[in-house]
Write a structure and sequence with these properties.
- The chain is mainly beta.
- It has a six-stranded mixed sheet with strand order 17-16-21-26-23-24. A five-stranded mixed sheet has the order 10-1-13-11-12, with no helix packed on it. Strands 20-28-27-22-25 form a five-stranded mixed sheet.
């Protein structure tokens, strides 16, 4: 008998009638003491829980979430990660981009349609609140009579998140200080990867699943080992040597009728070597769109933007940057500013499509990057145009060091056309793109000293963030914002107002 274990979830059980329904949730967000690893600290909870309640819906349903901010001293916003928000860009939940934050004591209602089945999540998108515990899962099932292209007998969900003993406020203080202070496999079983970010993929067998912040996968595990014992499931950090500071995450794969807390008789598996990039790239190259579910990308793009990921100092403070520009949010959200024609609230000068000296930039060397700046300028995309994004990783401010950055695009899925090591060659590397069966995702990693190429169509009217999903990196400026077809967005609800220059526009 086989069973399904999912990372961030994939269960498609039949629920209710076949017609689209309205799924209503009422959440109270507040701080409570929690101790998942026996260390007691304040955590952000939803209705007393972290992770928060799982949202269950069927493809085509409308989800309505009424969120009350009970934090007393903090604002909040919640992003629905992987939900494209077609026709509802104001519900994307990105403070400073699509809405003003929800103030203490206030209630905000998110309303959106889940147009595709699959595995998704939600999390805070204000400051660094996700790390404080404000996150959870979204499960969107298929309509009645429609089945996945794979079979299973049972399902379980695993959601992975950071858990620091320092509070998010302490971490933010460290990241903004001088000197700078950093924020600090199923045993014996193979996994068959069958879904990524809500899209079916050709089944691929793996011993280890490399998953980066913001990604979702569904995997099949066959329960065919010695039934008299339990087995370890482990998680390890890759991309940074954290073995001395962060112990591996451990869970038990329970073989019934063994007691679920019965410790396996062997040591947990060691996991892959933290800096072995080759095996990670092999998984990335091996995952293709499933036959029968291939969405072919446009054969060419209208615009190519090269994002060089760099680490910089500006006035002595460390920043993450894109093309030597560190992103900062304006006080008036972009969506509101553009619809209300408030052009003076953010920089109108277009940011660069590539670093001015990209051709001569050495991605393997520590570069001074003395000309780095910060900006709240945005990229304006022609509506319905096809855009290529090249994510290029460079060396950090530490010699011989480059980090993994998982980039997440709001409001869209994109095709992953290719990966490579070293510096992207604008003439040769596009000839290697996979245009036949590339996977579609909303989050993708760019590996140390390497590049990742993706393509999307700017066909969703609104203003959308694109950023590194490591919370501290976005906090420190690794992100951009795209605008497309904003003139096609309908009348904005007044409840997203209330900050910056639009305080007077909010009505109770």
């Amino acid at each position: 008998m086989s069973r399904l274990i999912t990372l961030l979830l994939c269960v498609f059980a039949a629920m209710g009638s076949a017609e689209a329904r309205v799924r209503r949730y009422k959440w109270d967000v507040k701080y409570e003491f929690k101790s998942p690893d026996c260390y007691r600290k304040l955590a952000m909870t939803i209705n007393g829980k972290t992770p928060g309640p799982t949202i269950l819906a069927r493809q085509g349903d409308t989800v309505v979430v009424e969120v009350t901010n009970g934090l007393a001293t903090e604002n909040l916003a919640i992003h629905w990660h992987g939900i494209r928000q077609i026709g509802s860009p104001w519900s994307d939940g990105t403070e400073g981009v699509t809405q003003c934050p929800v103030l203490p004591g206030e209630t905000f209602t998110y309303r959106f349609v889940v147009d595709r089945p699959g595995t998704y999540l939600y999390h805070a998108h204000y400051g660094m609140q996700r790390e404080a515990g404000l996150y959870g899962s979204i499960r969107v099932s298929l309509p009645d009579g429609v089945a996945e292209p794979f079979a299973y007998d049972y399902d379980r969900s695993i959601i992975l998140n950071d858990w620091y003993h320092k509070s998010t406020h302490e971490q933010a203080a460290d990241l903004s200080s001088i000197p700078f202070g950093w924020v600090g496999e199923p045993q014996g079983h193979n996994m068959t990867i069958v879904e990524a970010d809500g899209h079916y993929v050709e089944p691929i067998v793996a011993q280890n699943l490399f998953i980066y912040s913001g990604e979702t996968y569904s995997v099949l595990i066959k329960i065919d080992q010695q039934p008299s014992r339990n087995y370890w499931i482990t998680t390890n950090i890759v991309g940074r040597n954290a073995t001395a500071t962060t112990p591996p995450g451990l869970a038990i794969l329970n073989y019934y009728p063994n007691h679920p807390k019965r410790v396996p008789p062997t040591d947990p598996p060691a996991g892959p070597i933290w800096n072995d990039i080759a095996v990670r790239l092999a998984q990335a190259h091996g995952i293709k769109a499933r036959q029968g579910y291939v969405h072919t990308p446009p054969p060419k793009s209208d615009r190519v933007i090269v994002f060089l990921n760099t680490q910089n100092t500006i006035d002595g403070y460390y920043h993450w940057s894109v093309n030597n520009v560190s992103f900062r949010l304006p006080h008036t959200p972009y969506l509101i500013a553009l619809k209300e024609n408030l052009r003076h609230v953010f920089d109108q000068r277009p940011p660069p499509d590539r670093l001015y000296d990209f051709a001569n930039y050495d991605v393997y060397q520590k570069v001074n990057n003395t000309n780095a700046t910060s900006s709240d300028a945005i990229y304006r995309l022609k509506f319905n145009s096809t855009v290529d994004i090249i994510l290029q990783n460079a060396n950090t401010m530490t010699p011989n060091n480059s980090e993994t950055h998982p980039w997440h695009l709001h409001g869209h899925d994109f095709w992953v056309l290719g990966y490579g090591t070293g510096k992207f060659d604008v003439d040769k590397d596009p000839k290697k793109y996979n245009l036949a069966n590339p996977i579609m995702k909303n989050t993708v990693a760019v590996h140390p000293h390497g590049w990742t190429a993706l393509r999307f169509v700017a066909d969703n009217p609104g203003v959308w963030a694109f950023h590194c999903h490591i919370e501290s990196h976005f906090y420190m400026g690794m992100g951009v914002v795209f605008e497309e077809g904003v003139e096609k967005v309908g009348k904005l609800p007044s409840e997203i107002m209330g900050c910056g220059l639009v305080k007077a526009l909010k009505r109770p």
